[in-house]
Design a protein that fits this description.
Number of helices: 22
Structural class: mainly alpha
Shape: globular
Length: about 475
Amino acid sequence: MAPTSVDSIATSPSTSRSGHAAAFEALLSRPAFWLAIQALLFVGCVYRDWGFGCRMVEDSPSYFDLVEQRLLSVSTLAGIWTVGFPFFLRVLSRLNLIPYFGLCQSLCYISAILVFHLGLRRVGFGGAVATAAASTLFYLNVLIDRAGEIHPTLGLSDCLAFSLAIVSLSAVLTLSSNRGSRGDWALLCLGLFACCQVRPAFQFMLVLVPLLGVSLLRLLRGTVEFQACWKRHAAALVAAAWIPFLLFCTMRWAAVGQFGLVSLTGTCLGSLTGQFLRPQLLEKIAPEQRPLAAEFLRELEKYPGYRCPVSGDHDVDVELVATNYCALLSFVVPPLMERLHYREADRDAKLFALSMAILRASPATYATWLRRAFAIAIATGARDSIQNPMIVLLCLLVLAQRALGKAGGWSLTAGRGGADPPLLLRVSVVLAAAFTLLDLILVLSLQAPWNRYVRPAFAFWPMAAVSGLLCLLPLDSVRSREESAP
């Protein structure tokens, strides 16, 4: 037997350590590792703040009351709640998972981020670029703050609806490249329909999807290909977004006599525009709406502590509108409609007609409201992004990773499809701007600029900020290792 080499024995531990270091370096280069770490931290933050149970707030009992009812009955369809979130609660109840409500919503949100990351990879962005972009969604203050308005533990539909919105946008992103499939179309149809059913405030997505899809098509494909297929692509997106929605609205119209997703639009708009009512405005309102307007004004004057937010010709106190809005929505409008003996199915339509009459009588007041409410919303969103320390930390980590890329970091050079940080910046800015604008238009035209409604509208701007940072970093200092990392 040949003698054993002393040198080989002496170098074995070093070789082993070198192997472990290589394995550890390979682990650090995998996007899945960093996404998993952040997902665990997200779940840990949720548990640290409130545990995994369901925190009941003002609207929560109404959702839970629907769990044991027939969700497609006439009485349910005629009400002010959609059926999506009660159905989700029913599934959790059947599986005995209500005690883990916060965990279930957290997992839904994490799954949405992973789907979005996969969409970026399928478009052609590299692993590091896609991970940096998708990771910004883990650190939204409106979600991870202890008092976050759409915290996963809140017994509200906001977190689940936002998760479904992210999934739908991921499908739009993939379909607008040349890597879409029938599964992506199915995901878009089901995800968007479920999103609107869970939370009607996301109906702006019905307009966003076609507009965003055509915009992304222009960014992700060449000019010749875009000109050849944009009309067909736009028509397909309109069909995928609107056909399920219109079919449900038609079914609901046949059942309750009202065409729409839910009997809430008139109630919300009436709680906003009703505050513009003053005695001198009554004579300007259409005669057929004047009796209801007079009753509405009398009800406002009787409500303790109510102050009209309109002064002068059309000056509006936005903060006072926001303060009054909740009181009108809960304690003024419903009792008034019951006292006037309107059928439940007719109440929303009556309030919508009254609101339109008020707007026609005082368009300048409504225009002032919109202008000031938009200014407050934009200031809130900008402040929220600037004050988010986790986004700043993520930017620093990306900067460090990019600078140390030569030592084994991820590649931030172009991905397999030629997608690079400048393209990601253009995509993320278009996505963020369209999402914010259309969200605010729907929300502020019907409701007060509360944080719960406003802050999620700016959810994609941190991704744009990180994309901009990636564009500022030198690209020639990193070797591409995308092919070796799954």
